[in-house]
Amino acid sequence: LPFASQDPDPSNEYFSDGFTEEVITDLSRLEGLRVIATGSSMQLKGIERDARTLGRDLECTHVLRGSVRMVGFRLYAAAELVEAATDAVIWASDFEGTLDDVFEIQDRLSLAVAEALGMEASPAERERIGARPIPDVRAYDYYLQAREGSTHLTDVSLRRALEHLEEALEIVGENALLYASMGDVHLYGAAVVPEERERHLDAAESFARRALTVDPDCHRAYALLGMLQADQGRMREGIANLARAVELEPRNAETLGWAAQAHATVGLMDEAAEFARTLGRIDPLTPWSQLVLGFVDMLSGHSDDAIANLKRAYRLSPTTPMFRLLYAFSLAFDGQREAAAHLLGDVDRVPGDVTAAFAHVLRHALLGEADQAAACMTPEVERHARTDPQFSWLVADCYGMLDERDSAAEWLENAARLGFINYPFFARKDPFLRPLRGDARFDQALKAVREAWEQLDVE
Length: 459
Prior knowledge:
The chain is an alpha+beta fold. Helix content is about 65%, strand content about 5%.
């Protein structure tokens, strides 16, 4: 569970959150121990739930909870391990030191928890737990502030996050994790400031490669590079880098999600399903993870599972247009067009939100209203769809619903150019494209997808 901050200033909660994330990462490195990921842990922040309920809902045997307090330069941490079945505390301890001791305190706490669980960390696991990606505590504090700030996803917060990371680099010099983190911020910037998308994407890739020159085994850099390449249709490179990132950190939820999505996009469904299963076990409470699970299920032809997972994503974040859109899409795939159209009827038309705008395109297509769908297909929506493989597929499906075959074929070709080359799905499982087989223009597009799919060579 998120370690409670006992600092009277709520703006300092980033430190206790970072402390929690580091302990989760340390424990996740112990072979044979399943630890709920940071994203799901933070969903429980400020929520009172007893250990028995958590054990039942998350299928976990123990709950670790605690608190962090800073007094001047002194650091105090307390933790207790609770057996979920009995709600009994089986271990508890206090830790004290200076802020310079924060890494040692995190390590001692993690190893003590392992011992309380009857586990003995191997020398290799101890070495990984004791690693110091950012060796200076002041630089580490700037890193934590940058991580917290980047979650707000505004131009101002992202610029401030970059400033914090630059301050950290001034202290420690070249550092792989800090470079990779700067790349992450630029990746977010590409979405937040679309008019500067190319600049941000170029900067993100540059920082990822710079990180790898400092540390050839930097997990975050491989993950970032893989995300960028997959997003740009460079699927062979992207899949290889994402697979390497998972190899280095096999229980990182974000990397597992991107790897699952990328492998499904190119039709490597066994690999995608394996990544998705692991993701579902360690990160069951974040809507993004449920969205990834639903996406993989949909492309696998598992309609019921897709609906269930995308419904969970939607319920976890009902005001986010993307989750509502894909949940509605899963219903439509199952033949529930009216229910899907009804779900999309009250999506707020948020200025600048292309997902919300596209939801209305899909709604009219589901209802067979070609003119209204065309009216909602604004230049902004089309520009975004042209650069996004998943959106290109959704647009192709909308035209398929309306039996506009040339347009469906053209958008399928665009999706394929961007790396969406899952030929078995397009040819046999997509209910809105399958009926177009036999049309010369569409069959030509499908042939191009098949050729790209057959030429994909991924080790």
